[in-house]
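Reviewer 2 asked us to include a model.

Predict the structure of this chain.
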Amino acid sequence: MHDITRRDWLASTIVSLAATASGTSAAVPGERQTGGTVHISPAVDAAWKLYYEKVERTRQAIYSSRFSGRPDVQRAANEYFLSLQAVAYTTFMAPRSAYPLFYVHSRYEPQIFGYGLLNPDFRYRGATVDGARTYRIWGRRGTTRFLDFQVDVAPDGRSGPKSEPKNYRLDNFQAGSDGRFEIIASADPHPGNWIALPGSAPHVAISVREALYDWEHETLTELHIEVQDDKPLPGPLLSEQEFLQRLEVVGDMVGYIAENWGMMLVDLTLRMAEGQRNRFGWQKLPSSAGTNPNANYANCIYDLADDEALLIEFDAPTGLYWGIQLGDVYLRSTDAIYHQSSLNGHQALRSADGKVRIVLSKQDPGVPNWLDSVDNQLGIIQFRQYFTDAVVPLPKTRVVDKRKIVDFLPADTPRISPEQRGKSLRSRRLAMLRHYGY
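Predicted model (structure tokens):
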């Protein structure tokens, strides 16, 4: 650390903190002293105070929500509140449209950023761009089920996205025989592969969903973005006015995400299921809320005792993709790397009658198609179908004694030994670790 050792630095820091607490000052080697003066403009100081007021209101709302009296929900709330602030920062403060990137680890990170019930089968990426500029998107198609670009005018934290999203499936664009592609994103039409941007919007979100089916063998798409026009690049540091605008949005978004991508969706799910837990209902949200118009969603709030299991049964969908996953009541996805908390159309076993039967429980039932609830006795199930002409009916559910689950399954249902389960979980884990670069 320059001309001082780590031990000297730690010692001087402790002395400085102690001196500050006692009202005196202490010199730190290599630093100029300012006498404790706070250098901040009145506008920024006021904006920070307003931000803290907003997040405090959100904290109160989270800890007083419908199920917050339950110990497992309280444990989730502790981390959820902090994660919302991190999500709001990485999504609405950090991005620079003049320096675009398809962010991955700063927005969609298993066990860290899981708001909105992110799908373990999807590799999410996202870039923030200026609708008035021109961008080049290029890469090489992988072997996944599909890749979808969704273009939204970025939300302001009060009303969600400002317009209906536009979606572009990568497979509908032209690509070379080796899978390489190039797309122009701009407000003005462009020959060839083109994504239309709203030219009057300075903050446009390009969200990417790439669907993995066979985790072990499919490869992800290589994807990049760069500015293509000759407009001068601004410096990366925000002006005070831009910082104030973004900080206002960040504070609003903390509350917006908590209300609309957490508490509100739980309430909506219960209403769609006629107020009943352990029962599915269709999720009826407009695509302007950030959902994908190519998808159909059905949700269920499950609530099980330790000795109970939930049997889920539905006709096997025939579309391009389907998947089912678990999350908590704040819509944080249940860990799907170290636990089998999700299944898709490639992973799930069909019964001889063409139906899919899934068992949700805390303990391994010793049969295929187990969903592990992990720490959540109470949580949410989401069933997704993408790119299908025939949406299957709502899944049927039944709460049963976990010790008698095999009595409710077809007689030819295979049994899974602990050794087989362990091997399957390890293959699943290694595949997902590889996809995320862990």
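The chain has a mean pLDDT of 88. The longest helix spans residues 240-272. We have added this to the supplementary material.
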